Amino acid sequence: MQATADGIKKECSWSSWKGQAIDLLYWRNVKQSGAVFGSVLLLLFSLTQFSVVSVGAYLTLAALSASISFRIYKSVLQAVQKTDEGHPFKSYLEVEISLSQDQIGKYADKALLYANTCMKELRRLFLVQDLIDSLKFAVLMWLLTYVGALFNGLTLLILAVVSMFSMPIVYEKKQAQIDQYVGLIRTQVNSVVGKIQAKIPGAKRKEE
């Protein structure tokens, strides 16, 4: 019974976090989304100018300075007003943040599943189990060489964050037009792949 209650609690917690992430990406709360978006961009731009160690140290110092200052301020305020409110971060200190053995096992199983799936897929592509899929993978890697020549990893990460916070709201407003264009592109790609497959003897496309 206790295990069922814990499972329901975890599911509710996961649904809550998922809902908050969706609200952030769709800018349901402009101030909150703007703060998160600006903070992430500032962090990434900082990493382009300074080392990871420096950025991490400065962020840690900033967080410690803010928390220590607030702690001293509340202590002085309580002494002046002669109140006994206790530690200002007491509610956060009492929050359970440790992972249970079941959670660690679940996450480890998922990581193992993803790792095995990735290794099997790479083996299939590199050993040319399906010629069409291997050719598409080769074309993707060839395109990435040009992308790598134009952008470094941090620049791509910055572009990914910008897209993450802009594409959902754009898609929500222009869903019909975007779906139409995506359908046209998919049709063209399938047509090209079909022509290539027809010209290569013995190449059979994997059934979906």
TrEMBL record:
InterPro entries: Reticulon, RTN1-4. Keywords: Endoplasmic reticulum, Membrane, Transmembrane, Transmembrane helix. Its main location: endoplasmic reticulum. One of its GO terms (biological process) is neuron differentiation. The chain crosses the membrane at residues 35-64, 150-171. It is found in: Endoplasmic reticulum membrane. This is Reticulon. It comes from Oncorhynchus kisutch (Coho salmon). Residues 21-208 form the Reticulon domain. The lineage of its organism: Eukaryota, Metazoa, Chordata, Craniata, Vertebrata. It is a multi-pass membrane protein. It comes from the Eukaryota. The keyword Ribonucleoprotein does not apply.
